[in-house]
Specification:
By secondary structure, the protein is an alpha/beta fold. It has 2 domains: 7-142 and 348-452, Rossmann fold (3-Layer(aba) Sandwich); 148-341, Glycogen Phosphorylase B (Rossmann fold, 3-Layer(aba) Sandwich), CATH 3.40.50. Helix content is 47%, strand content 14%. It has helices at 14-30, 40-45, 65-73, 91-98, 101-104, 115-122, 138-141, 152-162, 182-190, 194-224, 240-247, 261-267, 277-284, 303-307, 315-326, 335-341, 354-368, 377-397, 407-413, 419-433; strands at residues 7-11, 35-39, 54-57, 77-80, 107-112, 132-134, 165-169, 229-233, 253-255, 270-273, 289-292, 310-312, 440-445, 448-452. The chain has an 8-stranded mixed beta sheet with strand order 6-5-4-3-1-2-14-13, with helices on both faces. It is globular.
Length: 453
């Protein structure tokens, strides 16, 4: 029987992922499995300083194959889930952009949001039989009735600061990029297949038009309801400055991007979106959710979030729906009905969190594993050199102003996090769930923490 290795939990976007992965780290630590958690870029650039572990990757596109090869030669086991696996692109586009046989070969297993995602991966022409486990996702755990109290203090703080407000979630990372050129970014992800390239070009044009219509709606809505406060939360990849310049003439419109979206969804009177996963999250929380769809496309729309929302095609319909909701005349959102729509897309076990399910699986695998052959000293040394060289390259890129590795962009993705903040989050999990009595966090290095007993 093999002893389970420590977990390594890289976080790309702090606001989106950190709380959920911290909950997973607490569950692992509760069972005696230490877990390293921190900023994805920092973990990958400092991977040679961490012990061999179970590395939970957030994706497996072809561009991930190089770092996965390095991790494997350093002695890590790699499992993965896709943060965008619940609301995903059509299968062929997904395969071209986010899946590759080169990366799959390094994976010991995949954790799926639900059966829809599992089937899509199994239908991949180059699927190699990598085990797929339908566990749900830790981000969905945070929305469950027994866990969401974790955000109660944050909800109170938002309401004290903002009063009653209407939330508009913007999900236009391809058409309002914080860094780089949208066309060039998409060229780099899916230019290998002609049909895929054509799709991306059409999708970009569609999203650019939709972004302009969505932004125009935001201003008109703020003007229509001058006594209501409106808050826009841009996608982490979006340019905040574009939104701030737009919002400047409207005294009742502000741009916010701090923290996890869950307390914002719980604190607002209603939320407006277009094809955004937060539409599903809001509906699961019982928040009134509206999908504004001034244009539609069977090719480019993301139907699942819109399906669990009130759908409005015109500004007049939107004005009427918003007025009905704030006047209490619209029917309430029924989370149970939402879960019925999501049956094939999201695993929801009544008596087990997905984080517990994931650790159960990892422990079961370790229990029946006799231990494979460790990488040779030569393989480890070549991987160490490759990792150090890669880290140096990323560090040099951090000085470029218009680069996804620029210091300012990395801080937009992962604002500086102090140990006291991590401790406070763990304390909240302890209070809400009545678990994790001896679990604590320590600083390993900047932006990386060890959660253990």
């Amino acid at each position: 029987m093999s002893q389970i290795k420590p977990l390594i939990l890289p976080v790309e976007t702090q606001a989106r992922e950190f709380d959920a992965k911290l909950l997973l780290a607490c569950v692992a630590a509760e069972r005696g499995i230490p877990a390293y958690i921190g900023f994805q870029n920092r973990i990958r650039d400092r991977i040679t300083t961490l012990p061999p572990g179970i590395f939970i990757a957030k994706g497996f596109a072809s561009k991930k194959a190089k770092i996965m090869g390095i991790l494997t030669r350093l002695g890590h086991e790699i499992y993965a889930w896709d943060e965008e696996g619940l609301v995903h692109h059509p299968p062929q586009i997904y395969y071209d952009r986010r899946l590759s046989k080169q990366s799959l070969k390094y994976l010991s297993g995949l954790f799926a949001w639900g059966n829809d995602y599992k089937k899509m991966i199994e239908d991949f022409p180059d699927y190699d039989g990598t085990p797929i486990y339908c566990t749900g996702n830790p981000r969905a755990d945070l929305l469950r009735t027994e866990v969401r109290e974790f955000y109660d203090a944050s909800v109170r703080q938002l309401r004290d600061r903002l009063g009653r407000f209407i939330l508009l979630n913007s999900s236009f990372g391809t058409s309002n990029l914080a860094t780089g050129n949208p066309t060039e970014r998409e060229k780099g992800t899916a230019a290998s297949v002609r049909d895929s390239k054509t799709w991306w070009q059409g999708q970009l044009a569609y999203r650019v038009e939709l972004f302009e219509l969505y932004r125009d709606m935001t201003g008109k809505l703020a003007a229509k309801f001058p006594d209501r406060r409106f808050v826009v939360r841009p996608h982490p990849a979006e340019s905040l400055e574009t939104w701030r310049e737009f919002a400047a003439p409207f005294p009742n419109l502000s741009i916010e991007h701090e923290g996890n979206v869950a307390p914002w969804l719980m604190a607002c009177d209603l939320m407006i979106h277009n094809g955004c996963q937060t539409g599903i999250e809001g509906a699961l929380l019982g928040t009134p959710v509206v999908a504004y769809q001034p244009i539609r496309s069977e090719l480019y729309d993301r139907p699942l979030p819109n399906a669990v929302s009130h759908q409005c095609e015109t500004l007049e319909q939107l004005y009427d729906r918003v007025d009905a909701i704030i006047q209490g005349k619209a029917p309430p959102t029924d989370p149970a009905a939402v879960m019925t729509v999501l049956t094939d897309y999201l695993v929801h076990e009544k008596d087990r969190l997905s984080v517990d399910h994931i650790v159960d699986i990892l422990q079961e695998i370790a229990g029946r594993n006799t231990g494979g052959m460790a990488p040779s000293a030569g393989a480890r040394y070549s991987a160490w050199c490759a990792a150090e060289l890669r880290g140096l390259g990323k560090w040099l890129r951090s000085f470029r102003s218009n680069d996804i590795y620029s210091n300012w962009h990395q801080r937009q993705q992962f604002p500086e996090l102090e140990l006291a903040q991590v401790d406070e989050k763990i304390a909240r999990f302890k209070n809400v769930l009545g678990r994790f009595k001896d679990v604590k966090a320590t600083v390993v290095q900047k932006d990386i923490f060890l959660v253990s007993r």
